[in-house]
Amino acid sequence: MLERDFLGFINDRKLFKPTDCVLLAVSGGIDSIVMAELFHRLGQLFAIAHVNFGLRGPESETDALFVKNKAEAYGVPFHLTQFDTTEFAAERGISIQMAARDLRYAWFAQLVAEHHYVGVATAHHQNDVLETILFNLTRGTGLAGLHGIAASQNGIIRPLLFATRASIATYADERKLAYREDSSNANDKYARNRLRHHVVPVLVDLNPGLWQTLPRTVERLRAADVLVRLELDRSWQEIAEPIGGETFLPIEKLVALPELPFRLGEWLKPFGFTSDQAVQLVASLTQEIGQRFESPTHRIIHERLSSGATGLLLEELSAAPDYEIKLTDWPKVPLDVTGQFTVTMDRFHKPENFRPDTNPKVACLDADRLVFPLTIRPWRQGDRFRPLGLNGHKLVSDLLNDLKLSRSEREQTCVLLSGEQIAWVISRRIDHRFRVTNETKSVVTLSVIVKS
User: Fold this and answer.
1) Is 27 labelled a binding residue?
2) pTM value?
3) Has 173 been labeled as part of a binding site?
């Protein structure tokens, strides 16, 4: 029965062809030993890989020898490796189970590439599917986490997903298959073991037909997930407006959609945003523009475009400009500032009828108040200056907000420092302390020419 269902599952899911060679991940436990036996009896080409994680001392060594002997009995290639899993987990600050998973799958991928196997087969079965669903529920999940484990995904093949743990055990007894018992499977310190030992039996007691209904439920959830993905893709294409290298989501289109927090959460997940941030983004739509949200790779700004449209602007994070141009004397030629613009400086004695230029791209400063070295650098959070005409100080960030500058204009803004004091927020506002007064004898005029 199990052999017939095994072949039917492989053919229905088109997991591999008779001419393919499959790498089997064999621990020596009952599930993987039954999988290897089924491959052998099917006459399928296969190889065996075993990982010694070094977690159970002599028991691990015995497991490795047992699997090696099994591969020799089948006459198939055998691959063995050993890891210091505990040290690997400590170095990366992850759990032992996560470390073991990362180590084995990286090694499997290497073997597949080197020996041209069609993929790696693992012995996951229906009980694993249920435990995965329950485990995902405890952590919080969407539809994708409720349809368990895929039969084939990213080079990983799971040809026993049709079977239950009980049917696998029955087959092993019928074939009198020897296998190794992993002592850690009885340890309730692992979350999955607690689910296996204490939760799943209760569910089976509530519904003795659970293993018949589970595959149908999983298939419905998978189908629902496919339909949701199609709708998410359709609505994203309808709403998202590309603007250069950025994406704009207009408010009037967003607010017309049902279940907006869920949609935003799913749309923005590939860009590193969380579902909690999606809820905050929806709330920001009814508030003033300017709010920003960041993921490790992207940023979203509640923005108003030059066209007047408001919405969410999604952009990839770029490294913040970081430069310092120091001057120890007045430059005699135009000064290039990181390829964005040039600054010319002209120093002269102040004429009697001198009137400062009101063009914001021109700064007229008292040359004698400027202290070398002069520095041009990007503005930074916390920068303060005394805007022309004001008695008190103001944050540069507040000035840029008051001017309602776009994101790119804010990022391109830089400052001229006299010693440690800001003398000019370039192209925005000069500092009151460096203004030209009746007592000024020498004037320096700085003019910005933006490169096209």
Assistant:
1) yes
2) 0.65
3) no
